[in-house]
Structure prediction request, 352 residues.
Amino acid sequence: MAGRGTDEHPHGADRLCDIGDRVYSRAVRRGRVPRRDAEPVPCLLDLALLHPDPDDMDWLVPTAPQEVMTRLLRGMYDEVSASQRRVGSVVEAFERYAGLGRGTRSPQTFAGPAGEGPAIRVLDGVARIQAAMDEATQACTTEVLTVQPGGIRREAELSEGLHRATALRGRGVRMRDLYTHVARHGQGLHTYLELMGDAVEARTLDEVTERLILFDRTVAFIPANAERSMALELRHPALVEYLGTVFERLWRLALPLAAPLPDTGIEGISHRERSIAALLAEGHQDAVIAERLGISVRTCRAHIARLSETLGAASRTQLGVKMAQAGLDGPPRSAAVSASVTLPGRESRTAR
Prediction:
């Protein structure tokens, strides 16, 4: 945990600069400090001694001194022969910080299970997120559940987590991944699944929730902003159990990657176009539909144009009427109803 540091703060967490010492001590005593107080000391954020308050991003809360000391010692044990002389100074420094916080409790601090750290922690920055996920991967022994929105997965995205997936497979950990149906068309996903073999099972849905990664039903990671440059690390048992239940219900609704998508029952209307029609009927704009299904806005509009052509609609208003007549404005109708659908210029047909 040496930290990046800056030219003005070339130190580790066990030898804070004077101003860093003052700001961190104040945070431990009071439970949190304004973000602006830490601007002169980026070392505190670089070293994960302070992190954003989940309830108010304008404030920073301290990492418990005991947790910081545990992280330091874990890294030091790996190189104990070279770091033995530093152990005493680390213990002495953080015992003093721990004394500052005894008897106080911040209302913004959510304690997790004993030995598991805080129940909710904000991870600020991609490097911090990756480090936390690497740590969770090392501790994982049973299963990993993931929800991966966004359509076709780029090979770079899949390669980013390949080292974690390979390590998990080596320990016999079972992995289950949920994607949108659009992801089926990406060669990168199929290559990844071939590499992982039986260790990974994938299923797809029309649309999925935001990204979720859940390790051993004990720790979960979800995005904390739209750019995904911040994440929440969740260890609260009730939250983790809830997310696990959501995953399992989506998993039961999803289709195995090897299974074909269901037929719409209407000639000329693809499964994706049926999904787009249902979202149009709910009143969603093109951009929202594209994001939810994991496709580009341009592709979405091309499908809408094909829908209009197939149904013989000359305008969006007329398209809505035609979709309702064809039963495309909601869940699939029964075979008897589908059998009566007649598209413009075509004979009645039965569902295939």
Q: What stands out?
A: Confidence is low (pLDDT under 50) at residues 1-7, 104-109, 333-342, 346-352.
